[in-house]
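The protein record filed here.
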Amino acid sequence: RRLVPIQDDAAGVKRIRIELAQVLVKAGQKNEAAEQGKRAFDIEPHTVDDLEKIEEIFRGAGAAMEGVRAAEARAALLGQGSPAEAIPAWLAVADLWRGQKRNDLAAQSLEKVLELEPAHRAAFDQLRDLHAAGGNWRAWARVSDVFAPNIADPEEKLALLKEVAKVHEQRLGQKEMAFIAWTRALSDAPADD
């Protein structure tokens, strides 16, 4: 702790706080480790390596929510460079939020995956399941409607668009939207020769 004041720059302070937090986790002083982790997390800018270490500190200290926040920051940082690296990170964040029973935040993480890769089937399926389980049918319909153009199989696409129409009609009571969805479904239907 005495090394923190003699550091010349913020990166040095962050490095010392991370090292101190890692030692505190190993010593079983979880509250103090989490506090040092929070202080290190507050010092920006971050590198992916810093965020991985901070996330590990929070996990070891039993500070799950802060750990997820560090994982989110890491995924966002990865997204600035390579979407291919960011997608697994956002999927992991969604899993962490589900573990915390925060399906709303898990859904936001899955939306980030679909922003990076609109045709990501696993994220789409998980997001639809989350919305259906939460009874958020408007979001379910929106996600399904946006994903439909990414489905190559015409029969599967038709089935999805029919599902969207039924949700608008039966669950949301939106007759006009149901009509539009049915029109889209039937216009995209393979022609019977």
